[in-house]
Amino acid sequence: MHLDPFELHRPTSVDEAVRLAGELAGRFDFLAGGTDLLPNYKMHINLKPHLVALDRVSELAGHSLSRLGAMERLSRLEQDPAFVAAYPGLADALADLATPLVRASGTVGGNLLLETRCFFFNQSYFWRASLGFCLKADGDRCHVVPQKERCYATFSGDLAPPLLTLGATVEVAGPGGRRKVPLEKLYDTEGDGIRRLRLAPGELVVAVDLPDGAAGQRARYKKLRVRPSFDFPELGVAVAGRWNSAQVDELKVAVGGVETYPRRFDELTEALVGGPLSDAKVASLAEEITRRLRPVHNTFLAPDYRRRMIGIYVRRAILEAREGQGG
Ligand SMILES: Cc1cc2nc3c(=O)[nH]c(=O)nc-3n(C[C@H](O)[C@H](O)[C@H](O)COP(=O)(O)OP(=O)(O)OC[C@H]3O[C@@H](n4cnc5c(N)ncnc54)[C@H](O)[C@@H]3O)c2cc1C
Ligand code: SF4
């Protein structure tokens, strides 16, 4: 596998990046750490002739407890003791995310905007060609659900579920100016599964903001994967909450690694707030979340197994948070 030639652009400000994006419309990708994009390019997946690198845009760098720059390296978050103490769910996710080497290059923005994954898609050009490609790149059908004209590739980023449980918002810049969107609204939940984000052409992510009160919650992230040393999530469950003795005052649960976008389940958890969270209530919440999610056969582990593990991981994550582990 080799990298085809491309032209590299290195803007030094958000405005310049947005201007370049306008000029190169449809013929470029933004480049952050490149740990997801460049392996895909090597497999000749959705290649573009131009890359707009964001590493010289100083506004995108750095982090505080309330704001994470899109270009902040994942390793810088995990090496910040104040960050790890304030956000135990994010700390769990960072510790289990890829490898130390990948985390040294991979960024917050790149992780949230990760290409979705499928074992018919993350393959070499020749492998994909032998099957006539697929809807998501170069082809006209889906090998996972051939009856449907949509893509079921899985969202496999580890940061989104814990950030969803903290109520994170994302600052976006583009030709129309700047706007803030709740993280859950960044993901396309209604389309064909190919267009995975609700970003307008030429828009880039500037930063992720964490609201007042996000820090200091009891939180956990549980990840199912084949090889604990570096694999993508086959399931990722995040929980964050506040307890006042036995009573739960705040509770959020989000799940990734199962469908085309990460999901939070406020419609189920809100009803539990304000009362004691018994084992029976946790068990029925876990069952209800499992009922709403439908993994398909496009990753290594069988969908039935992944589905059964959803309830188990939801239960374990909530019980650990309730008992005071993780913050
Ligand atoms: C061996 C290996 C194991 C991995 N395991 C995991 C894992 O366990 N969990 C996991 O979550 N990930 C995993 N990854 C994927 C990846 O390394 C990380 O998700 C990483 O955080 C991606 O960030 P990046 O900066 O390298 O993104 P890039 O590859 O640079 O970009 C990813 C996508 O986001 C777009 N993009 C990036 N930044 C912006 C921005 N600011 N605005 C607009 N668009 C942008 C790019 O155009 C591209 O489409 C793994 C990768 C490898 C190689
Ligand atoms: S789910 Fe279907 S269309 Fe999507 S990547 Fe896999 S095979 Fe391709």
Write up this protein.
This protein has 327 residues and is of the alpha+beta class. β10 and β11 (263-264) form a beta hairpin. 29% of the residues lie in helices and 19% in strands. It folds into two domains: 59-209, Uridine Diphospho-n-acetylenolpyruvylglucosamine Reductase, domain 3, CATH 3.30.465.10; 218-322, Enolase-like, domain 1 (2-Layer Sandwich). It has helices spanning 14-23, 37-42, 74-78, 81-86, 88-95, 100-105, 108-112, 125-130, 160-165, 266-269, 279-292, 303-322, and strands at residues 7-9, 28-31, 50-53, 67-69, 169-174, 177-182, 204-209, 218-224, 235-244, 247-256, 263-264. The strands form three sheets. It has a four-stranded antiparallel sheet. Strands 8-9-10-11 form a four-stranded antiparallel sheet. The termini are far apart. The site of iron/sulfur cluster has 13 residues, from loops.
Based on the model shown, name its key terms:
327 residues, 11 strands, 29% helix, binds flavin-adenine dinucleotide, binds iron/sulfur cluster, alpha+beta, four-stranded antiparallel sheet, 2 domains, 12 helices, Uridine Diphospho-n-acetylenolpyruvylglucosamine Reductase, domain 3, Enolase-like, domain 1
